[in-house]
Amino acid sequence: MSCRVKICGITNVEDALMACHYGADALGFVFYAKSPRYVSPEMANDIVSQLPPFVTPVALFVDADSSLIDSVLKGCSRWLIQFHGNESESECLFYQRPYVKALRVKQGDDVAALVDRYPSASAMLLDAYKEGVPGGTGELFDWSIIPARLSKPIILAGGLTPSNVKQAIHQVSPYAVDVSGGVELAKGIKSEPKVQEFINGAKCG
After folding, report:
1. Of residues 147, 162, 137, the one with CA closest to residue 116
2. Is 8 annotated as catalytic?
3. Is 127 a catalytic residue?
4. CB of 105 within 8 A of CB of 127?
5. Was domain 4-204 assigned CATH 3.20.20.70?
6. Membrane spanning segments where (predicted)?
């Protein structure tokens, strides 16, 4: 089965349409003000309005106020939510939208138990743990701590690049892979050759 691909940290329409052209299944938009890839709700919704069909826009929040989340969601019915903070399952369910819950995992974690805390999630995203950083570290984690069978589809993130995505998929067999910094020229600006190589590696490797 072909692995699905999410290109995260989209900040402009040119990168969004370029990623779609090469076969991205989902695009991530970061609504976390401390991130260099932050984009305003207005800008993000303008970009999403120009996306082709069958591409899922993903709204990434980190322990966000409901007013911010509402300001994004009201702009478009296509949004899938990604909660990347310490949100409980009840907080994730509050907005009555499909959601992905991100977990920052490290050696010694019971990944299966962490995943089971969110039975209502559409999928779980596994990212590298780094103290004080909610995500987007660009760092790998030990994929061997991921159990072979989990109760939810897994989206693998953290330090993925065009050079290691095939190995990651071979080892983990995730439902999808998620990349941001690994396909950039600069923070928030994507490299067309890297995006193309990454997606080809994920889908044809």
Report:
1. 147
2. yes
3. yes
4. yes
5. yes
6. none
